[in-house]
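Hi everyone, sorry if this is the wrong subforum. Our group has a chain we'd like a structural model of before ordering constructs, and none of us has done structure prediction before. Sequence below.
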Amino acid sequence: MHASKEQQSSLIHIQKRKDFLHVQSKGRKWVAHGLVLQIAPNENDIKRIGFTVTKRVDKSAVKRNRMKRRLRAAAADVLPVEALDGYDYILVGRAQTLIRPYADLCQDLRWCLGQLKLIQRIDGA
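Answer:
Right subforum, don't worry. Here is the predicted structure as tokens:
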């Protein structure tokens, strides 16, 4: 299920380092094959999203940028529809982010949300 343009624009990007550090230190995380999801509640009733791929994952800036693009695309498809409001979500790239099939990357994100009990049930279940 793909998110509509209105739903995608509802995601606000985290820009400030202090917000990234807050999620890292005070939040929870779950590790999947293709990504790491870090979450922390925020004061507002909005979804905020951030992306991180460090040099430890890959020295090549081109590959790190491609990983971030893949994470952005997966987040744009999954988070607006299935994630709960009121949380900051940080997606951290791993070595598998670059080579994992896109559908599996989206499924990894859904799985992390489910493990952290932050997934909306659309089918009424």
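For your construct planning: The two ends are 17 Å apart (CA to CA). Residues 53 and 93 are 5 Å apart (CA to CA).
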